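dumping this here so i dont lose it
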């Protein structure tokens, strides 16, 4: 059994209010997501959501971690994968799924053997992984770029013009609780999830990608009347408590993968903040 997991406790608004920059970063920021030839999970106590990334230059087997006390990783879990690298393969109990860049895979509970590999070690796959507890075994399903639900949001005038792609949502694939998708900001637009929202029924993790060299994203969190910020670099993730907004402004445009879990599968169940009310 491997010990490659780090636990993050569920902090309350009362504690977070008093945190300084480094404390906030230690609590919510995941600095190193993508691991070459290994998987380093961050296990959040918010909805027991797990986040990792694997770059398989050599084949990598999905192993369970001590925290789960399970025979195998997916014994009581489901897994969502989005590839942000070169073409790769995910082997799931004898069936191979080829994932090109920006393609996704949902793996249902109960699958024992999962192996990640790349077509070319010179241009390896980069599999971003989100996993949540599951009570039922739904079929494994690949979500290609044409299966995705695409929504255009925002406007250039408010610097929030963006394309939202729903990969793992209940209208595309049967899931227990995991939802995942990807949002890309248009050139000149910098604000994601603005107007900001809270969904106390679900926690969320944002994974920022396509951040150009020398640029950063300032991620906003906290209750709507008590916000904090965390400066983030390319390919870093941030945990959003259920009670928190999760919004960001980049010094350029960028993309991010969102993943969430909790009480319902209704993507649009959000309490949207009135922008002038933010504090
Ligand atoms: O609950 C939904 C998530 O926060 C994201 O899907 C929002 C998002 O990508 C956006 O508005 O830019
Ligand atoms: Zn959200």
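and the seq i came up w/
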């Amino acid at each position: 059994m491997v010990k490659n997991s780090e636990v993050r406790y569920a902090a309350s608004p009362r504690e977070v209010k008093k945190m300084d920059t480094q404390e906030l970063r230690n609590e919510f920021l995941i600095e190193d997501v993508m691991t070459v030839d290994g998987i380093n999970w961050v296990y959040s106590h918010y909805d027991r959501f797990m986040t990792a990334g694997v770059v398989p230059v050599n084949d990598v087997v999905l192993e369970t971690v001590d925290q789960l006390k399970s025979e195998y990783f997916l014994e009581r879990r489901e897994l969502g994968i989005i590839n942000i690298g070169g073409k790769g393969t995910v082997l799931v109990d004898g069936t191979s799924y080829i994932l090109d860049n920006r393609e996704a895979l949902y793996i249902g509970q109960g699958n024992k053997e999962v192996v990640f590999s790349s077509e070319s070690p010179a241009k390896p796959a980069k599999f971003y992984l989100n996993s949540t507890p599951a009570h039922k075994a739904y079929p494994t399903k690949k979500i290609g770029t044409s299966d995705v639900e695409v929504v255009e949001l925002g406007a250039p005038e408010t610097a929030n013009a963006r394309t939202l792609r729903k990969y793992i949502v209940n209208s595309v694939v049967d899931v227990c609780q995991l939802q995942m998708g990807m949002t890309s900001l248009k050139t000149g637009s910098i604000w994601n999830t603005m107007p900001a929202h809270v969904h106390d029924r679900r926690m969320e993790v944002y994974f920022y990608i396509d951040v150009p060299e020398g640029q950063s994203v300032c991620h906003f969190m906290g209750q709507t009347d008590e916000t904090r910020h965390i400066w983030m670099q390319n390919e870093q993730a941030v945990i959003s408590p259920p009670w928190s907004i999760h919004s960001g402004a980049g010094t350029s445009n960028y993309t991010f993968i969102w993943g969430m879990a909790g009480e319902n599968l209704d993507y649009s169940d959000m309490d949207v903040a009135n922008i002038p009310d933010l504090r």
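The chain has one domain: 5-277.
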